[in-house]
Amino acid sequence: MTQAKTERHVILASAFLLILFVGLTLFVSSIVRAAPSPDGAASTAAFRAKCAMCHGPDGSGSEVGKSMNVPDLRSLAVQKLPDAQLAQIISDGKGGMPPFKSSLSEEQIHSLVVYIRSLHQKK
Ligand code: HEC
């Protein structure tokens, strides 16, 4: 093998590796971006599991919730609260609502805030 040929092989091999690396990075980042979709299945499931027993699957309030005077999460009174306050209510609880900071991560709480926002649009 001549010197020139070896160099060409090295260049080809590194170009190949570079393309492979870029492709892999794009692939991984597309998966990562797809995972925490704001009002996707995960937050819907979390809402159904943790909140719907009082707030109803659509946020309007279940029978149990209505007996506790839960506000309609779709209402302007709730929707006008800033994200930070919604997140704080979810994490610390309020009145008859239990705190969730020990059972939900900050990200889960954030996606529930996004979910509550999406309820408003569906009304
Ligand atoms: C045990 C019943 C119960 C569960 C479970 C529950 N809540 Fe509540 N929630 C309440 C009650 C009662 C209130 C009204 C509290 C008040 O204003 O005194 C409330 C109020 C709220 C409010 C509005 C607060 C305001 O100031 O208007 C939001 C937002 C909320 N809940 C979100 C959630 C989310 C998200 C979950 C699930 C992680 C959840 N809740 C689970 C009972 C519950």
How would you describe the overall organization of this protein?
It contains seven helices and no strands. The protein has 123 residues and is an all-alpha fold. The chain folds into two domains: 35 residues; 82 residues, Cytochrome c-like domain (Cytochrome Bc1 Complex, Chain D, domain 2, Orthogonal Bundle), CATH 1.10.760. Helices cover 67% and strands 0% of the residues. The model has no long low-confidence stretch (mean pLDDT 89). It binds heme C. Heme C (HEC) binds next to helix 3, helix 6 and helix 7.
Could you give a short description of this structure?
The chain is mostly helical.
CATH evolutionary superfamily of the largest domain? Cytochrome c-like domain
> Do you know the CATH topology of the largest domain?
Cytochrome Bc1 Complex, Chain D, domain 2
Query: Which residues form runs of ≥5 with pLDDT under 50?
Result: none
Query: Shape from CA axes?
Result: rod-shaped
Please identify, by name, the CATH architecture of the largest domain: Orthogonal Bundle
Give the tally of structural domains. Answer: 2
Oligomer: single chain
Q: How far from one another are the termini?
A: 73 Å
Chain-averaged pLDDT = 89
String of helices and strands: HHHHHHH
- What small molecules are bound in this structure? heme C
Structural class: mainly alpha
Radius of gyration (Å): 24 Å
Features:
2 domains; 123 residues; Cytochrome Bc1 Complex, Chain D, domain 2; mainly alpha; rod-shaped; binds heme C; 0% strand
